[in-house]
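Moderator note: this is an archived Q&A kept for reference. The question asked for a predicted structure of one protein chain; the sequence and the answer are reproduced below.
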Amino acid sequence: MWDDEQDLRAALQRVVDVDVPPPGTTRVEDVIRRGRRRVLITRIGTVAGAIVAVVGIGVGASALGNLGVGADRLPPAGPAVSTPPVPLPESPRPGWVTHEPTYVPAPPSPEEPGVRGPGMCAPITLPPASGREVLPEEKYLPVLLDELAKHYPGDAVHIQNKTWVNVNRGLADVAVYSKDKQVQRTFSMMAGRYGGPLEQAAEYYASVNSGGCAQKMHWLNLPGGAILQATPDGIRAFTRSGRWYQITGYEVPLAYRGGPKDDGKSGPAALPENVIVDLLTRLAALG
């Protein structure tokens, strides 16, 4: 129990613990006074409960943000919106190359006792982040907005959220409403940093979403040594300075939102891949 909560309980107890008046001596004024006192206690308890709940949420979020990973190793970002994974085609896109994992550790031998059963993957590991801090939103947000304005001229662009969490993570959510008021597109960006070589980091983040199993990727080499990584879970950008960017989201007809029915054809759909590639290419150029 927190010290503040103990103090509050003690104060409330002092108010509640009053001597019971002798029979026949209770006056109307006493009843009214005790009634007001109990109303006050109820109000104090309600406010205190709200304060404890809010503080508890903050502490819990802070604990989750650092659960088991240390100050420089936040867990990798997952998709911001639950859109179905897109199977990776056998042949890479024009200009892209196929990258086979190279940082896969040797699986334990059958004779070696361990917790991994047959067919399970030996997970890829990643050293603690030691590169530059993630850029604050005043650095990456204008780039994001400028590129969206180029792709959707005349559409209404609204910033829904921008958060520089800490040196490890930055977040931004931007909604784009079509000028004909028919479609909403939501772009969720995460910025982070990594430790170790770029190739190792790219393989690690790809393996996390596949249960720790290394998987084949398609890469697009960018100027300055940065790369775009495509997996069934989406596309990320990795820079040689130790930063990464990821963009997920969806587009949905506005008539679908809260509509009376869903015909199965007008629900959320994946964002155009060429737009995500252009956005990540611009962000990767920031270093």
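Archived answer notes: The chain is about 30% helix and 20% strand.
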